[in-house]
Design a protein that fits this description.
mainly alpha; Four Helix Bundle (Hemerythrin (Met), subunit A)
Length: 153
């Protein structure tokens, strides 16, 4: 299973992120490539506790949702809704300067991946609830991969 805990998996995501350009065309969804970069950065802020996201209603128990999303070997479906706090056009960070926003995201990924002591996450995930550091690192990989596939990377 791929995760940000793996140097190889992190390097793969970084390589793919560096291929994204402001004019990259989405395959699905509404976000532009620049908005996607900001959305991923907001997700990193959620993981570290810098961005608050309240628990959301779920159709299944959180532990079941988490297990399916993190461990069932399938790609996340297109069109999943995000929480308003991370949604572009709602509470998400507005794009500013593409190179700076991408550099910020790459720095966040490195910082999260290099975290070795203490508790990584400061709050529960809005859908999955409490998560261990390995679960957060798996989620961060999958979330980034999902959006990179949205733009053909």
């Amino acid at each position: 299973m791929k995760t940000l805990a793996s140097d190889r998996d992190r390097a793969e995501l970084v390589r793919r992120l560096r291929q994204i350009r402001p004019e990259s065309v989405r395959r699905w969804g509404r976000m532009s490539a620049h908005e996607m970069v900001c959305h991923l950065s907001d997700g990193c802020c959620m993981l570290t506790g810098e961005r608050a996201t309240p628990l959301a209603a779920t159709p299944l128990p959180r532990i079941v949702m988490k297990w399916i999303a993190l461990y069932v070997p399938m790609r996340w479906p297109k069109g999943l809704q995000t929480t308003p706090e991370l949604a572009q056009g709602a509470g998400g960070t507005r794009p500013a300067q593409f190179d700076a926003d991408l550099a910020k995201l790459l720095g966040q990924i490195d910082s999260i991946a290099s975290h070795r002591s203490g508790r990584l996450a400061k709050q529960p995930h809005p859908i999955f609830g409490e998560m261990s550091d390995p679960e957060w690192l798996r989620w961060a990989y999958l979330h980034t991969d999902h959006h990179l596939r949205q733009f053909g990377e």
